[in-house]
Amino acid sequence: MNKFYITTPIYYVNASPHIGHAYTSIICDCLARYKRAAGDQVYYLTGTDEHGEKVASAAAGAGQEIQAFVDNVKGNFDDLWQKLNITYDFFIRTTQSDHKEVVKKVITALGEKGDIYKTKYQGFYCMPCESFWTPTQVKEACGVCSLCKREVGPIEEENYFFRLSKYSQWLKKYLEDNPSFIQPKIRYNEVMGFLDNNVLADLCISRPKSRVSWGIEFPLDSDYVVYVWFDALLNYISAVGYDVDRDKFNQWWPPDIQLIGKDILRHHAIFWPIMLKALGVSLPKVIFAHGWWKVDEEKMSKSKGNIVNPYTLIEDVGVDALRYFLLREIAPGADGNFSHQAVINRLNSDLANDLGNLVYRTLNMAEKYFEGKVSSKDGVIPFEFKNAFDVLGKGYAGCMEKLDFGGALDFVFDCIKVMNKYIEDTKPWGLWKEKKIDELGEFLYALLEGIRIVAGYLYSFMPQTCHSVFRQLGVDKEVVNFSEWKWSRKKVYSVKKEKPLFPRIEIE
Fold it and tell me: CA 217, CA 219: separation in Å to the nearest integer?
């Protein structure tokens, strides 16, 4: 049995979750479900990043004590993940005592190694990103933060720094030797371009308590707290027992894929591998940076007021339609333009017209013609189905491994379209009138078996729909496994039709 360790970034708790958070977690959930179905042992990690100046400011703005504030926001993530059927294995919080201890041990170890030093910093600071910028960097960014494009302010203070520059050449050589480490290729090129054109500055990893008090106390100096990003990145090792539970750490480390948004690429593609190298810890296999969902071609942000509320979408179209849209509409490495109309178009065309119609009318015929009891004498796949289902079996896994969700779904929906055409071409109502009962039975068995198989392949994308289909087919399955996604595994069907899976939504 292979292991598969997958992580989301840990989400910042200065506000409630939005569609961007949901997108990242749904991608990871889809991969985790696919790997479990393939027989792998899966560890799916997510969590919340709960320290820093922005969190303290948000709590003050809400008139709440900070810990109570982060507890409430964390609860919002819990609620949304439950609604979206996110099957994470562990939810880490950076306010947990065991995580804090790991952070302190790491800083102590790096201090003893000589990779941390104290000096006075003079430059610029971005409070929303909680990042320092040199005068040169600010000038190149036309006077704003390079990350969020907001105004920065001058700052001068003494802090502790981590020697990123010491490992600059090592990182560049590592990336040259491992071009698949950062994906997709455009993000790899972005990082390599940055390393080619910039001198890697050392990273400030502390904040004075006089300015930022909400954080993990800096173990080398109690007048400081740990910089929130240095603290946050270490969750990936603290969650699997680094320096605490050796067996657990050896079982799961390194991550097979760490999924992030492209706006935090530099933290994960530069800071993070250097931190691990300094600790003597092996690097993740893949850092995958997905694109943004935009509204009217602009990135969603609270300041612009264009955040899409996932709860509203769940109410409007349902959980599985939302999951399907986010995974189908764009490739994970690309940006997408979000609109309610686009979601509804996908629901009406793919889910209502193609999948939902196939399931409903097949089950309706099974009940009408055979009182719901359908079997086959030989269980042979129809000639009309064979090519599409063979291609599905051969191509689906390869697409999933590459995060080509659209490609994987194309294979599935090719089979669905073949089955819908099979109904139109065969004209089962004619077989019934001509009393060709055996032929009609074989016809319906083939459709039911095909529906069962495509439901299995759709499980990672739309788990509720999959279980609904299984229930209507009389297939008692709570756990979906690849070994079941083969023809003629089910010899007799006892079906019970329910409401259509995806009723069409009409909009004026």
Answer: 6
Q: Residue 469 — pLDDT band, cuts 50, 70, 90?
A: very high
- What radius of gyration, in Å, describes the C-alpha atoms of the chain? 26
8 Å CB contact between 466 and 453: no
Is residue 213 a contact partner of residue 362, using CB atoms and an 8 Å limit? no
DSSP letters for 328-372: HSS-TTS-EE--HHHHHHHIIIIIIIIIIHHHHHHHHHHHHHHTT
- What does the chain come to in residues? 508
Cα 374 from Cα 492, distance rounded (Å): 6
Structure tokens belonging to residue 405: 């969700």
Residue 95 CB contacts under 8 Å (≥ 6 apart), including other chains: 50, 51, 67, 70
Distance between CA atoms of residues 395 and 27, nearest Å: 19
Per-residue pLDDT, 302? 66
Annotated domain spans of the chain: 339-494
Long-range contacts of 106-112 (CB under 8 A, 24+ apart): 106/234, 106/275, 106/279, 107/205, 107/218, 107/219, 107/220, 107/226, 107/230, 108/219, 108/220, 109/279, 110/162, 110/278, 110/279, 111/219, 111/220
**What is the architecture of the domain spanning 339-494?**
Orthogonal Bundle (1.10)
Strand 3-7 vs strand 257-261: parallel, antiparallel, or unpaired? parallel
85: left (phi over 0), alpha (psi -120 to 50) or beta: left
- For residue 500, what is the enclosing H or E element? none
Measured CA to CA, the distance from residue 260 to residue 286 in angstroms comes to 11
Nearest to 350 by CA among 330, 389, 324: 324
Tokens found for residue 75: 């609860």
> What pLDDT digit, counting tens, does each position of 225-281 carry?
999 999 999 999 999 999 999 999 999 999 999 999 999 999 999 999 999 999 999
Three-state SS for 220-234 is: CCCCEEECHHHHHHC
Q: Are strands 203-204 and 153-162 parallel, antiparallel or unpaired?
A: antiparallel
386-432: per-residue pLDDT in tens? Answer: 999 999 999 999 999 999 999 999 999 999 999 999 999 999 999 99
Residue type, position 304, single letter: K
Query: Is 193 buried (19+), middle (13-18) or exposed (0-12) by CB count in 10 A?
Result: exposed
